[in-house]
Design goal:
Elements: H1 2-21, H2 26-37, H3 41-65, H4 71-94, H5 103-117, H6 124-128, H7 132-153, H8 157-167, H9 173-199, H10 204-227, H11 230-254
Length: about 260
Amino acid sequence: MFKFFICFIAGIGAGLGTGFAGMSAAAVISPMLITFLGLPAYEAVGIALASDVLASAVSAYTYGKNKNLDIQNGIVMMVTVLLFTLFGSWIASMVPNTTMGSFSVFMTLLLGIKFIVKPVMTTKESMATVDPKKRIIQSIISGIIVGFICGFIGAGGGMMMLLILTSVLGYELKTAVGTSVFIMTFTALTGSVSHFAIGGMPDILCLIFCVVSTLLWARIAAKFANKASAVTLNRATGVVLAVLGAAILIVNLTTK
């Protein structure tokens, strides 16, 4: 019962973060499973990534159905992110002490505050004025940056993509989140398969509980987000990210 409770709570946080902001479930689920259930870090990350796959996929479907998804540039960025995540991981393996586990936590908290204080009010009309070739080049450069940092540091992918899509590429918030979860579906799938291939199958009950809970709450969050106004979505996303960031920070501090 305790295992189910922890996985369900972790899934709520991960699902809301994914559906509202394209956040990686690993940022929420991993510290919860490690802290409260004593799972090995590698196994916890594998479960979190597996939970991310379906949650991101159903969120991407919901955003796509509401025409809030840029598939063309999303595919370009996704391929670049995957390639440079591998490159970043290879570089990190040769450099000692590069782990920055708190990176994604602080980024989540700060990004949440940013959405509350300075909401993204870009419109689809202003997005359409950008030259398609310029957008593809921007997507490639952004994918290189996100992929390398994720591979090198090992965290922060979803948050970095959301930040770059809104602040650098000038995406409207719903389209940014939709494109982010679309990319995260494939990056999470790649990550989870490699984790299970290397580390073996994880705790099956934890895996099932986390996947189902994350999927349920991601679906709820994505449906709400696509019906909400820009102002409401910015505030809701900001609150969710700020609360999750603070909660994960507290959980991390209690383990030290």
